[in-house]
Amino acid sequence: MDGKNKIRGDMMIDREMKTTINNWILQGKEAFLLTGARQIGKTYLIRECLKESKYDYIALNFIERPELVELFENATNAQDLLMRLSLITDKQLNKGNTIIFFDEIQEFKDIVTRIKFLVEEGSYRYIMSGSLLGVELNDLRSAPVGYLRIEDMYPLTVKEFMKAVGIKENILEMLEECYKKQQPVDEFVHKKMLDVFYLYLIVGGMPEAVAVYTQTNDLARVAAVHQKIMRLYKADFTKYETNYKLKLREIYDSMPGQLDSKNKRFKINTLGKGLNYDRVANDFLWLKDAGVAIPVYNINEPKLPLIISENRNLFKLFFSDVGILTNQYSDQVKIAILNKEKSINNGALFENVVAQELLANGFNLYYFNNKKQGELDFVIELDGKVTPLEIKSGKDYKKHSALVNVLKDKNYEIEKAYIFSEGNVETKGQKIYMPIYMIMFLKNTELKNTIYKIDLSGL
To answer: What pTM value is reported for the model?
Structure first.
């Protein structure tokens, strides 16, 4: 490929995680670990933030330099490890001014347990990243408090994608104002935003795919990126299937068909006669922990706290990136999606995007299905309230008998529900209708004061 046609797949795209990393660079004392699936831009983002900072840094990649694993494994303490590190880098280590970047740490898992002692030693600061960490490090979340900060990174959200393809900040601010005030969006703007949303269904949020699209507008080249990513994922599946006798590839390959079923629930018996959830639970957990699939669990009733009625045997399984899902459709179907042809059922795609957005915004994901009342696509805890979400891809988005049944049930005490569709903003009683692209604004209000002191006077 000649220089003119070469695509910069690592083109810098505005990511919200950049602010988080920059804030840590300015004032963070603990080590910083960025986790996430393969190919979502972790390494590139960290390197860019370090380059733009006032600090010196060195980057050590355990895949590119496998000899580092043995070198560090044999270190007896923090001082010994740092001495060994100084021997293999040609950069000067300046106490108090150097940040050390350990990359691809899944190849040297022990670094996570050793990071406490490196932080305590205090000469330098540390930032790390890696893939498959949820798989490789089962106790990752039990890292010592105060020594390690863990942040999860995901594919580009709808908002990040809109910025990447050229939607200006003032337009996004206007949309958010309409969301907050529950006011309709100007019809011209609304239609343009739907066009961008439908483009997102095809391109998705993997940074290289977005970069290729923004530089070429060539959907065939975007598809080639998706295919490359899927090959990488399946190579990981093969490795772990061999070691642990899992059905990862079989599950992953069946996901598009499962999402095309009427209620989108994953049916275990399609994987083999006589199989039940207990026998394949680790397979689904692996896909979730690897960051390539998003489970949405059934709840028995929509009452707080939702987690106590969670039923993990019943779940929907979405892709971590909607572009990976649509890449498995034919070119003709992709064009039909972009043209918004009514013959195409986009329900699975709409719900996949919603699952991605909710996960990226920190929600636990649930759905509700009751034979008597019907099914709610998603149920979340929004600002401490149970909030149903209905996702409608067709023109009949105001038909939702299950939602009506649940809202009128006094046992649940649900105050409001959101319906996301192609329609504009509208409010009818407890039902709030929102354009599907406004899912990007659905977030919990950040608590400003979490101090609570009990009054024991008078005892």
So the answer is: 0.94
